[in-house]
Amino acid sequence: MEQGSDTLAMSESNAVLIGRKPVMNYVLACITLFHGGAKQVSIKARGKSISCAIDVTEVVRRKFMPDVKIKKINIGTDQLSNEGVTEGLTNVSSIEIILER
Amino acid sequence: MEQGSDTLAMSESNAVLIGRKPVMNYVLACITLFHGGAKQVSIKARGKSISCAIDVTEVVRRKFMPDVKIKKINIGTDQLSNEGVTEGLTNVSSIEIILER
């Protein structure tokens, strides 16, 4: 992982992490951040939540804030350590969508 | 097919549509296209298959073809007409990942 980029620092502070709640919860979180003065919001998700991250992005852009643009989409792999039945590391895909106003 | 837009023509012809099969099937499809001389392969998915599209991209890049780069990631919304229990149009998120060798 590279450090030292402003983009990373910005996105860290205004990150919305997608989990298993309804899409609208995360949409609201994004809108709240933008209304609070954020210029950039980064939406992060892993594994099966990735499709939810894209739903959130599309709802924010199409229904609520047409002035928001997608600045960048990063995809990657995270290694998680299993502590359950199987041992070792599992690879999980991840996505980061950076929205800009 | 229109002439003059090479990128579009290329990606249309070399598309891998992600469905419900195992990830490796789609990985093989991508590798086969690249080995057949394709310079670009576009991976397309909708709804819950989106996370699988990212898995495929990561496996192709990390395990098999490190020289493949992600040229562009597009996300969007497709409207599908329901013919089942509910009527009307449903919005489904979609993704297109364009890989370039």
Q: Could you tell me the mean pLDDT of chain A?
A: 86
**Helix and strand sequence of chain A:** HEHEHEE
From the spread of the alpha carbons, the general shape of chain A counts as: elongated
* Largest interface chains and counts: A-B, 20 and 20 residues
Distance between the termini of chain A: 26 Å
SS class of chain A: alpha+beta
SS field, number of helical segments of chain A? 3
Oligomeric description of these chains: homodimer
Point out poorly predicted stretches of chain A.
1-12
Amount of beta strand of chain A: 25-35%
Summarize the main sheet of chain A. Answer: 4 strands, mixed
Strand order of the largest sheet of chain A: 1-2-4-3
Percentage of residues assigned to helices of chain A: 25-40%
| Number of E strands of chain A | 4
The Rg value of chain A, from CA coordinates, equals 15 Å
Characterize the structure shown.
Chain A is of the alpha+beta class and 101 residues long. Chain A is built from three helices and four strands; from the N terminus they run αβαβαββ. The first copy, chain A, has helices at 6-13, 23-35, 50-64, and strands at residues 15-17, 40-46, 69-81, 89-100. In chain A, strands 1-2-4-3 form a four-stranded mixed beta sheet. In chain A, β3 (69-81) and β4 form a beta hairpin. In chain A, α2 (23-35) crosses α3. Chain A is elongated, with a radius of gyration of 15 Å. The first copy, chain A, starts with 5 loop residues before the first helix and ends with a strand. At the A-B interface, α3, β3 and β4 of A face α3, β3 and β4 of B.
What structural keywords apply?
homodimer; 101 residues; alpha+beta; 4-stranded mixed sheet; 4 strands; 35% strand; elongated; disordered N terminus
